[in-house]
Every structure is written in structure tokens, then in C-alpha cells.
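User: Can you recover a sequence for this backbone? Please restate the input before giving your answer.

Assistant: Of course. Working from this structure:
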């Protein structure tokens, strides 16, 4: 888990990250983006999340033409935890919030052994 958190500052973790027994759950606020605007890839132990939005409008005020355009870009990467099941990662975009679930591989759990100090 510590490797997953290395790229996130504590202020960004609020309402964004939750570790459960079976998975890591992450939420990203991505207002204005749809699921078609978001691309998620895993490469060399890193999870990459990229989003791009372009909206162009044409409007007129009396006899004048006013083009308007809005652009949004989102790009982040996280180091995957060692116990992540990469092939089973799921993501869902709902109401401008991207939900990413990274299942844990129980066979890769850390083994912690207490050593007696004599």
C-alpha cells in the first residue's frame, strides 16, 4: 500500500482513497469528462489515468459571431501496489467521478513475523 500512496500527498487522499481487505478503491473528481474522454492503462507497474475534453460552441449576440471553446485535461499516474491483481482492475465513470477498484491478490500478501527481542 505504501507504494500506491507515494505519489499522492495527504491533502489529495481525503475522500479519494480507501483500502479494503479485498481491494484498493480510488475516486478521482473529473468534472466535464465522460467515460469516452478517459483512458486508463497499466504499464511497468504504474497505473496511468488520462482524460481530455474539448467542447466548442458557436453563439451569436445580435449581429456578432462569438465562438466559444472549453478544454479540460487530466493526467496522473500511481505506482501499483505489489499485491495488485492488474488483470482484474475495474473502472467506472459516474457523474464526473471516476471510481477505480484494484483487487488484491491474496497470494502476494506481505508476511509479517514478529521477532522476539531477548
Amino acid at each position: 500500500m505504501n507504494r500506491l500512496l507515494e505519489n499522492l500527498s495527504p491533502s489529495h487522499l481525503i475522500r479519494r482513497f480507501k483500502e479494503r481487505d479485498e481491494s484498493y478503491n480510488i475516486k478521482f473528481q473529473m468534472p466535464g469528462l465522460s467515460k469516452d474522454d478517459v483512458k486508463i492503462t497499466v504499464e511497468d507497474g504504474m497505473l496511468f489515468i488520462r482524460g481530455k475534453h474539448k467542447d466548442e460552441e458557436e453563439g451569436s449576440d445580435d449581429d456578432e459571431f462569438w465562438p466559444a471553446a472549453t478544454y479540460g485535461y487530466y493526467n496522473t499516474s500511481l505506482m501499483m501496489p505489489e499485491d495488485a491483481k492488474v488483470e482484474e482492475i475495474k473502472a467506472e465513470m459516474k457523474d464526473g467521478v471516476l471510481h477505480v477498484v484494484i483487487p488484491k491478490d491474496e497470494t502476494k500478501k506481505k508476511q509479517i513475523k514478529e521477532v522476539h527481542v531477548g
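That completes the design. Helices lie at 2-5, 10-13.
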